[in-house]
Design brief:
By secondary structure, this protein is an all-beta fold. 2% of the residues lie in helices and 51% in strands. A hairpin with an 8-residue loop joins strand 11 and strand 12. The longest helix has 5 residues.
Length: 202
């Protein structure tokens, strides 16, 4: 029998093309952190609002979208996300994890299940080099929102198939929260994109 060559997702180009690389050291049904990492990225929804995380406010820090100017973003520590890319033996999209630094500590975005409810929180946690199994509460599969989309993406939870990161208006608190919800078909609320932090004006 011929040797099996593991081909792992490496990156998604702007035109939606998924590129792969060979990895002989990656075990089946597992994830391994790539050296590729997009640092200091801003997470935005389709309304161009910016995702802000303030872990000191709560043990399970929630995240919300707010309208911000470039000047406000430069002075806001809770918006700079690191996007960690993982290699995967199953071709389901580009596996990514999100982390943020707050007061010198790393917080990881993860999905918490409470019975039938699911929510998105940030908890203090190191970014693991290796994740066994086919699912993880901190990994999401990044794919283009539409086939030819060069700007917006959707992020499906690896923990629960069919559940995506989304933005949702909470009328009681009058904030737009980052949530995880089940989606069938096209839903504008899961239309998200990232961009580099604005440069400080000299």
């Amino acid at each position: 029998m011929a040797d099996i060559i593991q081909m792992c997702p490496l990156r998604i180009e702007d035109d939606g093309t998924l590129f792969f690389e060979e990895d002989e050291g990656l075990e089946a049904d597992s994830f391994k952190k790539s050296e590729k990492c997009k640092a200091a990225q801003i997470f935005r929804n389709q309304e161009n609002h910016v995702l802000i995380v303030r872990p000191e406010d709560d043990a399970d820090a929630m995240a919300a979208f707010e309208s911000m100017t470039d000047e406000e973003m430069i002075n806001e520590p809770g918006i700079s996300l690191n996007i960690h890319i993982y290699q995967d033996t199953n071709l389901r999209g580009l596996p990514v994890a999100f982390s943020i630094k707050w007061n010198g500590e790393t917080y990881i975005m993860q999905i918490v299940k409470d019975g039938s409810n699911m929510r998105v929180v940030f908890r203090p946690r190191d970014v693991p080099e290796f994740i066994p199994g086919e699912k993880s509460d901190m990994l999401f599969f990044k794919t283009p929102f539409l086939k030819a989309d060069r700007q917006f993406y959707k992020f499906e939870s690896s923990l629960e198939q069919g559940y995506f990161l989304a933005f949702e208006r909470n009328e009681r608190d009058r904030v737009t929260q980052l949530v995880i919800k089940r989606i069938d078909g096209i839903d504008e609320s899961i239309k998200l994109h990232t961009s580099p932090l604005p440069r400080r004006k000299i």
